[in-house]
């Protein structure tokens, strides 16, 4: 039991008496100016120890590199870095196609992101680089801005269009900018803007945002985007020259373009695609099936790329059959350039959704592998790391990156111990950039599309899990299906927003669906549970015990009252209305009969009948339930409307001589009740009764039973 006063000591109660706990004294609330001042002092104060701590936390490599166990870790890091680097070469070139960029920019992106994350990342295992969903989002923005700028769709990957615009429209220097140049300018600007968003979120300490993006939401979004990616690659598999669709319903627009241009299929590209698919799909399945026995996955993609490049070069597929090829891939690095500041307003909204997706994927993967291997990661530091993996490379003509599940799994399974493996991967990519890249001139675009399609197997397999997800949790399955369908059929970015809104809707919906449950006491001990869920529970005569399993706030307070009245089988509002109506009719009838001169004995009989009806109403309401005990253990919080709802319930039932008491309230609910004036006894003129809050249901039941005995309203029986 809790009294309305505030105390700071605990009292040991008599076992026969209700449990009494006295609240500890609360710390006085600080003014906003004081709170802000304290936080500024905390974060802006400077000392050598604090500077060192900040630097070490911001640059994690300074923490783990001095403690690096060379003999134990170096072999695993070299092996995993080497394997991931080999896998990244064909994938970097392929995903450049998805981002509407030349192959060299995919290699740049993977190289710089591997180095920067190794320095700033707090996860030991994730592989940061090109991710298919982000490439799709970037590619959609690039194609849209190319169309706005007046560039025609390119006819071959890596070739330069004859149409050129002055760089002043999208670049910072006064030189001509062809289609390829403008495409990477847009891509780098989107990447820079997304990185700025991510760093700002890190500065604002909003890493907790990732918890609001559930696994079902992210999985549905990735699967829906995978369907869009698959559709976008069909034109390369068939060798068709159709522009990428923009706006909403791109899936339908793309398939319409494919079907109308099907007669123009390039037979050489089609045959090459079928052969590569016939090789890579079984090869990937073998890798998956025997991954426990293989020390490292076999790089079939690299083998296919090498063989296909040789076949295309010596077979002259480009000149003889018109097959699209990668074209010239230069060596070395281009000089850094600034983003196109004038493009930022055009891409700011797109960059925000890209930033959220990249951050969510990176944090979820880093936390998953950290938990698996027994260490912790800082979500805000991951925000900084992935943000700078986008900001700094954007000056070197790179596009957006994040963690990628497939490469992370490969990295972990091949013995990775630290981010030293990321530096080894960067060394492999550097070798390709400086020496090997030009050798991929004759590589067909359809081969790159095959690599992209084959790597979508994991996301597309999620469709097989839908029945299982539906059996386990229908709400999560619904979120997955809605997010997937919106991302695939309507718009990719909209799918993420719809997924977040649907998740929030379901959370709110659960609070709207909560029902008041009647509780009964177990026969062997003082424990109360739902009488409709368990057998053998006993109820108390004259005392009804109810539980509500949701917060009571403005959106569901009326539903709470409605559910309580229904469960108690006693609606005080209707009871009062019936009594008032009866009294009014009685008074009106008495006046009419008196005016008509009705005999006195007949008036007495009518009065006795009226009294009998009132007694029946009293028997129906008060005799069946004399007291209500509300178990508040499931009520997490109350707002003003929730407090008012409880006050109204207590007041309405008290007018029917039914006492309402609360039990097992948490401290948050108690504080809300106190601030809301629930304990204000002077208001109702009932001193002491309003201040009774109980810590156990048994104490509350015992209290109201003792109240009923002196009044003679109810028999004190269990």
Automatic annotation (TrEMBL):
<feature type="transmembrane region" description="Helical">
    <location>
        <begin position="182"/>
        <end position="204"/>
    </location>
</feature>
<feature type="transmembrane region" description="Helical">
    <location>
        <begin position="125"/>
        <end position="142"/>
    </location>
</feature>
<dbReference type="GO" id="GO:0008271">
    <property type="term" value="F:secondary active sulfate transmembrane transporter activity"/>
</dbReference>
<keyword id="KW-0472">Membrane</keyword>
<feature type="transmembrane region" description="Helical">
    <location>
        <begin position="300"/>
        <end position="318"/>
    </location>
</feature>
<feature type="transmembrane region" description="Helical">
    <location>
        <begin position="338"/>
        <end position="363"/>
    </location>
</feature>
<keyword id="KW-0812">Transmembrane</keyword>
<dbReference type="GO" id="GO:0032474">
    <property type="term" value="P:otolith morphogenesis"/>
</dbReference>
<dbReference type="InterPro" id="IPR018045">
    <property type="entry name" value="S04_transporter_CS"/>
</dbReference>
<feature type="transmembrane region" description="Helical">
    <location>
        <begin position="426"/>
        <end position="456"/>
    </location>
</feature>
<feature type="transmembrane region" description="Helical">
    <location>
        <begin position="477"/>
        <end position="508"/>
    </location>
</feature>
<dbReference type="InterPro" id="IPR036513">
    <property type="entry name" value="STAS_dom_sf"/>
</dbReference>
<feature type="compositionally biased region" description="Basic and acidic residues">
    <location>
        <begin position="581"/>
        <end position="608"/>
    </location>
</feature>
<feature type="transmembrane region" description="Helical">
    <location>
        <begin position="384"/>
        <end position="406"/>
    </location>
</feature>
<protein>
    <submittedName>
        <fullName>Solute carrier family 26 member 2</fullName>
    </submittedName>
</protein>
<dbReference type="GO" id="GO:0007605">
    <property type="term" value="P:sensory perception of sound"/>
</dbReference>
<feature type="transmembrane region" description="Helical">
    <location>
        <begin position="216"/>
        <end position="238"/>
    </location>
</feature>
<dbReference type="GO" id="GO:0060117">
    <property type="term" value="P:auditory receptor cell development"/>
</dbReference>
<dbReference type="GO" id="GO:0016020">
    <property type="term" value="C:membrane"/>
</dbReference>
<dbReference type="InterPro" id="IPR002645">
    <property type="entry name" value="STAS_dom"/>
</dbReference>
<dbReference type="Pfam" id="PF01740">
    <property type="entry name" value="STAS"/>
</dbReference>
<feature type="transmembrane region" description="Helical">
    <location>
        <begin position="73"/>
        <end position="98"/>
    </location>
</feature>
<dbReference type="GO" id="GO:0036269">
    <property type="term" value="P:swimming behavior"/>
</dbReference>
<dbReference type="GO" id="GO:0048884">
    <property type="term" value="P:neuromast development"/>
</dbReference>
<dbReference type="Pfam" id="PF00916">
    <property type="entry name" value="Sulfate_transp"/>
</dbReference>
<keyword id="KW-1133">Transmembrane helix</keyword>
<dbReference type="InterPro" id="IPR011547">
    <property type="entry name" value="SLC26A/SulP_dom"/>
</dbReference>
<dbReference type="InterPro" id="IPR001902">
    <property type="entry name" value="SLC26A/SulP_fam"/>
</dbReference>
<feature type="region of interest" description="Disordered">
    <location>
        <begin position="581"/>
        <end position="609"/>
    </location>
</feature>
<feature type="domain" description="STAS">
    <location>
        <begin position="533"/>
        <end position="704"/>
    </location>
</feature>
């Amino acid at each position: 039991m809790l009294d309305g006063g505030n105390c700071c000591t605990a009292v040991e109660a008599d076992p026969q008496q209700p449990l009494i706990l006295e609240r500890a004294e609360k710390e006085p609330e600080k003014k906003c100016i004081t709170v802000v001042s304290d936080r500024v002092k905390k974060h802006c104060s400077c000392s050598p120890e604090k500077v060192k701590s900040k630097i070490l936390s911001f640059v994690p490599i300074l923490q783990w590199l001095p403690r690096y166990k060379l003999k134990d870790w170096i072999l695993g890091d070299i092996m995993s870095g080497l394997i991931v680097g080999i896998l990244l070469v064909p994938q970097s070139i392929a995903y450049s196609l998805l981002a509407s960029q030349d192959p060299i920019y995919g290699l740049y992106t993977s190289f710089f992101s591997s180095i920067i994350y190794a320095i700033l990342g707090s996860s030991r295992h994730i592989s940061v680089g090109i991710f298919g969903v982000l490439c799709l989002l970037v590619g959609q923005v690039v194609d849209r801005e190319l169309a706005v700028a007046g560039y025609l769709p390119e006819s071959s990957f890596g070739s330069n269009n004859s149409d050129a615009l002055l760089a002043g429209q999208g670049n910072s220097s006064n030189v001509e900018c062809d289609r390829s140049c403008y495409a990477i300018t847009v891509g780098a600007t989107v990447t820079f803007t997304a990185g700025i968003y991510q760093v700002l979120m890190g500065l604002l300490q909003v890493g907790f945002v990732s918890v609001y993006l559930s696994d079902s939401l992210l999985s549905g979004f990735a699967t829906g985007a995978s369907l869009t990616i698959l559709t976008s690659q069909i034109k390369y598999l068939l060798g068709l020259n159709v522009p990428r669709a923009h706006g909403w319903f791109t899936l339908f627009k793309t398939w319409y373009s494919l079907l109308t241009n099907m007669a123009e299929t390039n037979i050489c590209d089609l045959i090459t695609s079928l052969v590569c698919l016939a090789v890579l799909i079984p090869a990937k399945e073998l890798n998956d099936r025997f991954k426990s026995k293989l020390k490292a996955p076999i790089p079939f993609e690299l083998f296919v790329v090498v063989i296909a490049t040789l076949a295309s070069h010596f077979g002259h597929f480009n000149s003889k059959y018109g097959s699209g090829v990668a074209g010239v891939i230069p060596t070395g690095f281009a000089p850094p350039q600034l983003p196109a500041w004038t493009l930022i307003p055009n891409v700011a909204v797109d960059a925000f959704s890209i930033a959220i997706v990249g951050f969510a994927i990176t944090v979820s993967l880093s936390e998953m592998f950290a938990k698996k291997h027994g260490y912790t990661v800082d979500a805000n530091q991951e925000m900084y790391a992935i943000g700078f993996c986008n900001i700094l490379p954007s000056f070197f003509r790179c596009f957006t990156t994040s963690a990628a599940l497939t490469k992370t799994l490969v990295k972990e399974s091949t013995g990775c111990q630290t981010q030293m493996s990321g530096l080894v991967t960067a060394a492999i990519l550097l070798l390709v950039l400086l020496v090997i890249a030009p050798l991929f001139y004759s590589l067909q675009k359809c081969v790159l599309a095959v690599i992209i399609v084959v790597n979508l197997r994991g996301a597309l397999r999620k469709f097989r899990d839908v029945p299982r997800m539906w059996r386990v949790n229908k709400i999560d399955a619904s979120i997955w299906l809605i997010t997937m369908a919106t991302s695939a059929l309507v718009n990719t970015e909209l799918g993420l927003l719809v997924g977040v809104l649907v998740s929030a809707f379901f959370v709110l919906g659960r609070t709207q669906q909560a029902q008041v449950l009647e509780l009964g006491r177990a026969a062997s001990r003082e424990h109360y549970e739902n009488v409709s869920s368990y057998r053998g529970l006993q109820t108390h005569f004259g005392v009804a015990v109810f539980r509500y399993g949701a917060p009571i706030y403005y959106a569901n307070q009326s539903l709470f009252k409605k559910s309580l009245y229904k469960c108690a089988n006693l609606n005080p509002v209707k009871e009062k209305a019936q009594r008032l109506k009866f009294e009014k009719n009685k008074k009106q009838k008495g006046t009419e009969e008196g005016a008509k001169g009705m005999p006195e004995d007949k008036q007495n009989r009518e009065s006795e009948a009226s009294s009998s009806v009132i007694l029946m109403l009293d028997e129906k309401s008060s005799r069946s339930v004399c007291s209500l005990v509300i178990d508040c253990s499931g009520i997490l919080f109350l707002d003003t409307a929730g407090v008012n709802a409880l006050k109204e319930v207590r007041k309405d039932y008290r007018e029917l001589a039914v006492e309402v008491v609360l039990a097992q309230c948490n401290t948050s609910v108690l504080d809300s009740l106190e601030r809301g004036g629930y304990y204000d006894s002077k208001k109702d003129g009932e001193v002491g009764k309003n201040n009774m809050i109980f810590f156990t249901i048994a104490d509350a039941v015992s209290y109201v039973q003792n109240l009923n005995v002196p009044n003679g309203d109810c028999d004190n029986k269990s």
